[in-house]
Specification:
Blueprint lengths: L1 E4 L16 E4 L5 E4 L5 H8 L6 H4 E5 L5 H4 L2 H9 L7 E6 H16 L1 E2 L2 E2 L2 H4 E6 L4 E4 L2 E12 L4 E11 L6 E4 L7 H8 L2 E7 L13 H4 L4 H4 L2 E4 L16 E2 L5 E3 L5
Parallel strand pairs: 3-4, 4-5, 5-8, 12-13, 13-14, 14-15
Antiparallel strand pairs: 1-2, 1-16, 2-3, 6-7, 9-10, 10-11, 11-12
Bound molecules: zinc ion.
Zinc ion binds next to loops.
């Protein structure tokens, strides 16, 4: 399995970094897109092999939560695949309540009708809703959803669903991808017991939003944990030295990780 970071930036990033969306490539060559933000038309073009068309290259999509740097490209992808008569619907994996809310509050306005027909999310995608903290298997990889607190309003909490990825055919270590999360050291310590590698979102701006873990907080984690961690979803040109602080480093846009033999 390979993971390629199509982008490594935050919601307000630049074309030099793109938004933090990933491409997972199974040993069979099939690709799963993890999150589909407003940059995706451009980041996919740079991230896919020459002349590969996005709707032919991608087999499945996973969406972690409803911010536009994670779903802003979904209308484009839905129409692109729907109006290609040779294209089977892409499989869409999401936490079930978040999937319903994505349609109702974000996508229905643009995708809810075409000429002569009312439409639903299932017309565009082969929907595979997943229970909270449930799992699904794609290409012999087990993806377990981990509920991460992203925003707390005082009235309602909003979650993003991180992914713990492991070989479904044998017991072994996993890879963890946080998606968007507040700093949660205790949860991270628990997850690290199963994870050989952790890709953690990381805010690097002087002003803290709280809705993402900040670099200065992550730097307080135990060294044994930091040594497993790659950082992404950072602001342009961060003024930190993650290798000197015991992390693996900042992921670069387009960087690919070959996880063959690791999980
Ligand atoms: Zn977010």
């Amino acid at each position: 399995m390979k993971i390629r970071f199509l982008g490594v930036g935050s919601a307000f990033t630049t074309p030099e970094h793109y938004q933090s969306n990933l491409l997972i490539t199974a040993p069979s060559g099939r690709n799963m897109l993890v999150d589909c933000g407003t940059d995706i038309r451009f980041s996919l073009r740079e991230g896919l092999p020459d002349n590969a068309l996005p709707y032919e290259a991608i087999d499945a999509v996973y969406i972690s939560h409803l911010h536009s740097d994670h779903i802003g490209g979904m209308e484009w992808l839905a129409f692109l695949t729907y109006f290609n008569p040779h294209q089977p619907r892409l499989r869409l994996y999401m936490e079930e309540a978040t999937m319903r809310e994505m349609w109702r509050t974000s996508l229905k306005g643009g995708l809810g009708c075409i000429q002569g027909k009312r439409m639903h999310l299932t017309d565009y995608f082969d929907c595979r809703p997943v229970a909270v903290n449930g799992s699904f298997i794609w290409e012999s990889i087990r993806f377990t959803l981990v509920r991460m607190l992203h925003i707390s309003t005082g009235y309602r909490d909003f979650y993003s669903y991180g992914l713990l990825m492991a070989d479904a055919r044998k017991a072994g270590p996993a890879i963890f991808f946080t998606t968007d999360t507040q700093y949660r050291p205790h949860l991270l310590r628990d997850i690290a017991q199963d994870a050989a590698l952790i890709f953690h979102d990381c805010e690097t701006s002087p002003v803290r939003s709280i809705v993402h873990a900040h670099y200065l907080d992550l730097r307080e984690l135990p060294a044994a944990l930091r040594t497993k961690m790659w950082l992404y979803h950072y602001q342009p040109d961060p003024k930190f030295d993650p290798e000197a602080d015991g992390f693996r480093g900042f992921v670069r846009k387009g960087q690919e990780f070959d996880l063959e033999g690791l999980i």
